[in-house]
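Weekly modeling sync, notes
Attendees: AB, CL, MP (scribe)

Item 1: holo prediction request
CL wants a bound-state model with iron/sulfur cluster before deciding which constructs to order. AB pointed out that an apo prediction alone won't tell us much about the pocket. Agreed to run with the ligand included and paste results into these notes for async review.

Input as submitted:
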Amino acid sequence: MSTSEANATPREYPWRMPANWWTRSRHYFWYIVREFTAVPLALWLLWLLVEIKRAGDGPARYSPHGSAPFVIFSVVVLLFSLYHSFTFLSLAGSILHFKLLDRPVSASVIVMSQFAAWAVASGVIGFFLVWLGR
Amino acid sequence: MPEKRISIHATRYDPEHDKEPRLQTYDIPFSDESMVVLDALNYIKSHVDGSLSYRWSCRMGICGSCGMMVNGTPKLTCSAFLRDYWPRAVVVQPLNNFPLIRDLVIDMDDFMHKLKSIKPWIIRKQEIPLGAGEHRQTSDQIDEFRQFSECINCMLCYAACPVYGLNNEFLGPAATALARRYNLDSRDEGLKQRLPVLAESEGVWECSFVGECSVVCPKGVDPAKAIQQTKLDTTMRFVLPYGNRE
Ligand code: SF4
Ligand code: FES
């Protein structure tokens, strides 16, 4: 055996991620679902920009797009965004850590207060939208 | 009564002869309810096939060297009981996301480099002389970082992380958890030295929160939490006027 052969590092078998990795566990599958829900959400927001542009033409010439498929699409997108909000706010308990009266605030209290703040903010914004739209 | 037996399908790979890894089946006695997957491998090595290669040492979930994929999930084989799988067969494979050296032995060099890059030791601007006595900490100060100090470098979190599997430039869960462990230590002053590694795009920002690292961690380290907290920290340091303080 030559010296170079003797010193050669044995061949390692490289890692290759299988294309179907995301089907191999329930967690991975839901992670991918979560990531892909961002696509319709982005499309809906782009459409919102178009609507805002159209509204700029004045109330007389503006009629919001309200076809049945669009309403269904909007409801689905709303569910997706609620899913994102839910995962994001549930995370807060493990990320934020602060103390109250020298004692650490528990993760569940932080999460609950985030959800409460979310509900109050949604209520206030909803109230103003309805009030302004009258 | 016939002897209880269990089938173990273990990955075999001999870099000198095999083109790719393959599974080899061993049918062994399952004589004792307290047997773990590592016991099965040790039985195979002692009684059936002495050429099977794998790592282990402590047999008690401390050294972190016996991590393998057990029926597709990263596990410490010394803590995975055969009774939880029997009568199904047990498939034992090397940890996902790492190059394979031989049989069940992975190459961890990449992690070793990453670990070194986050400087996992206490950094002081000025060392306190030994004669000055110990550097005291209150139990509250220890509680700040205790969870992240429990890591045993078992690599289960890296094997569970698809982000690392797709891009091994990612700093990854355990290295970030250990960086956080030192950043939260009241004796440490090395935050500024670790930040460049943590805050770059292949640092914590590569993580898209799959969360599986924390699910598989056998020590409750919760590396996903360490990563998200580090994201928040680095952002705050960037946006807040006083954020750049030590
Ligand atoms: S964080 Fe947990 S899973 Fe990852 S190496 Fe450390 S002990 Fe193992
Ligand atoms: S042999 Fe040490 S952790 Fe399993």
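Recorded for review: Chain B has a mean pLDDT of 94.
Action items: CL to compare against the apo run; MP to circulate these notes.
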